[in-house]
Specification:
Blueprint: E1 3-21, E2 27-47, E3 51-55, H1 68-77, E4 85-91, H2 102-117, H3 124-131, H4 138-143, E5 147-151, E6 155-158, E7 166-171, H5 178-184, H6 203-209, E8 211-212, H7 215-221, H8 224-234, E9 239-242, E10 249-253, H9 256-270, E11 273-278
Parallel strand pairs: 1-8, 3-4
Antiparallel strand pairs: 1-2, 2-4, 2-5, 5-6, 7-10, 7-11, 9-10
Helix pairs in contact: 1-2, 2-3
This protein binds adenosine-5'-triphosphate.
Length: 280
C-alpha cells in the first residue's frame, strides 16, 4: 500500500485551567479534552523521490517546511532507510489559529500514518514522545480518547464515561495567536485548584464543568466571543465556552437536529464560520 487517506479531527476543551507558569516559559495546565468530528482530510503517498512534499491549498497555511505536517513527516523519515519520500496533501476544513488544534491534529495524523506506511513499528507512547516536540496538543490526537490532560498537555487520564454530544462550532474568522494569549495571561488562581471529575453521565454533567482560564484574555481583545456565547445560548445550547486560546466558541446540544438548526441560523445571519459536529 503506497497511498492512504486519513481524517484529522479537531478538539475542544470542556475545561482549561492554567495552574502555574513554569521556569521554561510553558504553563502547567489541566484540560478536559474532547475530539470532535470536524476533520481535515490528509492523503499520504510514498514517493520514489526522497524528502517531504506538502500541498495544502490554503492561504493561511504554508506548504513546505513551514507546515507542521511537513515537520512531522521529516522526523519519521529520519528514522527510515531514506530510500523513499512522502507526499502529503491536506484538505483543510478546520479553521486555522482557532483554538481547535487543527495543526496539531494534522501533525498527529501524519505521525501515525507515516509510521504505518513506512512500517516503522513505533508504539503509541513513542509517537506521543515525538509529537510533543512538535506541539503541546499533538499527543492528545495520538492518544485518541477523551481525557484529562496535565503537564503542558501531554500527561493523560482517560475519562471513565462521557456522553455523545453535539457541538455547534462558531468562529468569527479572526486568527488568534496562542503565544499572545499565554503572554497576556495574569494568573490569579494560585493555590485554589478545584476538582475536575473524570466521569460524566449526561450532557448536564459536562455543562457543569465548563470553564476556561484563557477566555478573559481573548474576550478582552475580541468582545465578539461574548456575543457568540450569548447567540449560542439563545439558539438552544445547554452550555457555551471558548475552546483553547480561542476564538472559536462551542455550544453543547443533546440532539443533532437542534444543533444543525442553530448552526445554520447563525451562519445565515452572521457571516461567521458556523457548523454542527458530533463528539468522537
Ligand atoms: P490552536 O489554535 O488550537 O493551536 P491551530 O492548529 O488551528 O489550533 P495554531 O496552532 O495556532 O492553530 O497554528 C496556526 C499557525 O500554524 C498558523 O500560523 C498556520 O499558518 C500554521 N500552520 C502550520 N501548519 C499548519 C497546519 N497543518 N494546519 C494549521 N495551521 C498550520
Amino acid at each position: 500500500m503506497t497511498t492512504i487517506q486519513l481524517k484529522a479531527p479537531c478538539k475542544v476543551n470542556y475545561r482549561l485551567d492554567v495552574l502555574r507558569r513554569r521556569p521554561d516559559g510553558y504553563h502547567d495546565l489541566r484540560m478536559l479534552m474532547q475530539r470532535v468530528d470536524l476533520c481535515d482530510t490528509i492523503t499520504l503517498s510514498l514517493t520514489a523521490e526522497p524528502g517531504v512534499n506538502v500541498t495544502c491549498g490554503s492561504e493561511e497555511v504554508p506548504d513546505g517546511p513551514g507546515n507542521i505536517a511537513w515537520r512531522a513527516a521529516e522526523l519519521l523519515l529520519q528514522r527510515s532507510d531514506g530510500l523513499c519520500g512522502i507526499d502529503i496533501s491536506i484538505d483543510k476544513q478546520i479553521p486555522v489559529a482557532a483554538g481547535l488544534g487543527g495543526g496539531s491534529s494534522d501533525a498527529a495524523t501524519v505521525l501515525m500514518g507515516v509510521n504505518e506506511l513506512l512500517g516503522l513499528g513505533l508504539t503509541e507512547q513513542e509517537l506521543m514522545a515525538i509529537g510533543v516536540t512538535l506541539g503541546a496538543d499533538v499527543p492528545f490526537f495520538i492518544f485518541k480518547k477523551s481525557a484529562i490532560a496535565e503537564g503542558i498537555g501531554e500527561l493523560f487520564t482517560p475519562l471513565d464515561a462521557v456522553p455523545l454530544v453535539w457541538f455547534v462550532l462558531v468562529n468569527p474568522r479572526v486568527p488568534v495567536s496562542t503565544a499572545w494569549v499565554y503572554q497576556s495571561l495574569q494568573l490569579t488562581n494560585q493555590g485554589t485548584i478545584s476538582i475536575v471529575p473524570n466521569s460524566y453521565g449526561t450532557i448536564h454533567d459536562l455543562c457543569g464543568v465548563l470553564a476556561n482560564d484563557l477566555e478573559k484574555v481573548t474576550i478582552a481583545r475580541y468582545p465578539v466571543i461574548r456575543e457568540i456565547k450569548e447567540r449560542l445560548l439563545h439558539g438552544g445550547a445547554l452550555g457555551a465556552l471558548m475552546s483553547g486560546s480561542g476564538p472559536t466558541v462551542f455550544g453543547l446540544f443533546e440532539h443533532e437536529a437542534a444543533a444543525k438548526a442553530c448552526a445554520e441560523a447563525i451562519a445565515a445571519e452572521s457571516g461567521w464560520f458556523s457548523v454542527a459536529a458530533r463528539s468522537l
